From TrEMBL:
This is Ribonuclease HI. Residues 224-353 form the RNase H type-1 domain. Gene3D superfamilies: 3.30.70.270, Ribonuclease H-like superfamily/Ribonuclease H. It comes from Sesamum radiatum (Black benniseed). Signal peptide: none annotated. InterPro entries: DNA/RNA_pol_sf (IPR043502), Rev_trsase/Diguanyl_cyclase (IPR043128), RNaseH-like_sf (IPR012337), RNaseH_domain (IPR002156), RNaseH_sf (IPR036397), RT_RNaseH_2 (IPR041577). It holds the Pfam family RT_RNaseH_2. It comes from the Eukaryota. One of its GO terms (molecular function) is RNA-DNA hybrid ribonuclease activity.
Length: 460
């Protein structure tokens, strides 16, 4: 309801909830959640406030209105008694977005800033179901942005939007070596004029209440049975030493790493190095419950305390592992036969066999038929579309035409410049193909001849 003061919630809809008695059956709970949905634009984090009611709706045959439901019901009424006044944006205004995530929901608030005032425009909230509740924190933050952009598409199309966050959201969405899910979101968001800003001083009370819920004490979570899996193996040969690491996410996605050591290491030291590095990487990609597998009996037994540790270097490794264990909510390591650790073993032997420390991306490809010769054709063009991508990635230059600029930003998400070479991300997000014709044909020949395996050096 639009008034001279701003946009206000319909008083009759508010009164309907304030006068409502505690539900005594499923139909009354459904009526309550429907009334909340009608006012969701005005309710900060409405999905989280409604979670106890949604849990009741899942138990149709065994209706139970417990203490948690009654408490949430009373808190909702208190909030409705002081609903914030919303405003509408002015043409060409820059709008600002604050995001919030919890294990069960994502929320946001879109605001307008005028001089020293911060005025809310719209609240958005969504419950996370199924696998979405298991996303890493940075993925949930990106999901909150995507959900908001879909819900408030007219605002995003007609206004520049500044996302105020202290999380590395821009870097995460801008990296082509991230997950395929994040790349799809980055492409979807590229049509909007979105910038990422550090969170500033909170001035509006409605915004302060929203932020306090974000930065307050974290809610207690029900311990999850699902665990990330870590397979590690170390290798020490005459050519050198290395580690093979395979990290499996909750969704079954595998991250494979072959790491060449720049120092000499015994077999046991290589096994420890592989485990320490693997734990660090698993933590960086969002693992909270980790189950590690190693085929080294010595390493596993020493970590469990079954074997005595006499060497000083092993003591230092155990101290490192103890330090990283505190990064996880739960950690367990299990010894497995070498044949069950074959993938990590192959990666470690590949890494130790490399003769130099040069970082490389190696891709496995399938060749159905033999070829007697390989023809490389170099095409030159003064208006090469790849140069436009290079200009955007390196200098931030865009075409003057808004439509061309939007298409270029969407396309550039799938590319990466490393060492003056433009790489393209194919269907799998871990490896990159050298874009042809950007270098001399001799480089292309060397690259194509060297395609033997797919390994990523790092993933954040």
């Amino acid at each position: 309801m639009v008034t001279q003061r701003g946009i206000e919630a319909n008083p009759s809809k508010i009164k309907a909830i304030l006068d409502m008695k505690a539900p005594s059956n499923i139909n009354e709970v459904q009526r309550l959640t429907g009334s909340i949905a009608a006012l969701s634009r005005f309710i900060s984090k409405s999905a989280e406030k409604s979670l106890p009611f949604f849990k009741v709706l899942r138990k149709i045959r065994n209706f139970e209105w417990d203490i948690a439901c009654q408490q949430a019901f009373e808190e909702l009424k208190d909030y409705l008694a002081r609903l914030p006044l919303l405003v509408k944006p002015c043409p060409r205004d820059t709008l600002y977005l604050y995001l919030s995530t919890t294990p069960q929901a994502v929320s946001s608030i879109l605001i307008r800033e005028e001089e020293s005032r911060q005025m809310p425009i719209y609240y958005v909230s969504k419950v996370l179901n199924g696998a979405k509740g298991k996303y890493a924190p940075i993925e949930k933050m990106a999901l909150a942005l995507v959900v908001t952009a879909r819900k408030l598409r007219p605002y995003f199309l007609t206004h520049p939007v500044g996302v105020r966050t202290n999380m590395p959201l821009k870097q995460t969405l801008g990296k082509p070596d991230t997950s395929e899910r994040l790349i799809k979101w980055a492409v979807e968001l590229s049509e909007y004029d979105i910038s990422y800003l550090l969170r500033t001083t909170i001035k509006a009370q409605a915004l302060a209440d929203f932020i306090s819920e974000v930065t307050g004490a974290p809610p207690e979570e029900t311990p999850r049975k699902e665990k990330w899996l870590l397979h590690v193996d170390g290798s020490s040969t005459v050519q050198g030493s290395g580690a093979g690491i395979v990290i499996t996410s909750l969704e079954g996605e595998e991250l494979e790493f072959a790491i060449k050591f720049g120092f000499k290491a015994s077999n046991n030291e290589a096994e420890y190095e592989a485990l320490v590095v693997g734990m660090k990487m698993a933590h960086e990609v969002g693992a909270r419950h980790l189950l590690a597998y190693s085929d080294s009996q010595l390493v596993v037994k020493q970590i469990e305390g079954a074997y005595e540790v006499t060497e000083e270097i092993m003591v230092q490794y155990l101290q490192q592992i103890a330090k990283f264990r505190t990064s996880f909510e739960s950690f367990q390591i299990i010894q497995i036969p070498r044949e069950e650790n074959a993938k990590a073993d192959c990666l470690s032997r590949l890494a130790s066999a490399l003769e130099d420390s040069r970082t490389r991306h190696i891709t496995i490809q399938y060749l159905p038929n033999p070829r007697a010769a390989l023809t490389i054709q170099v095409v030159s063009s003064s208006t090469d579309w790849r140069m436009l991508i290079v200009e955007w990635i390196e200098k931030g230059n865009l075409p003057d035409n808004r439509w061309d600029a939007s298409r270029l930003k969407a396309r550039a998400v799938r590319f990466l410049i490393h060492g003056d070479i433009l790489y393209k991300n194919p269907t799998h997000t871990i490896c990159f193909d050298v874009c042809p014709n950007m270098k001399e044909s001799t480089y292309s020949e060397k690259y194509i001849a060297g395609v033997v395996d797919r390994i990523s050096e790092h993933r954040c």
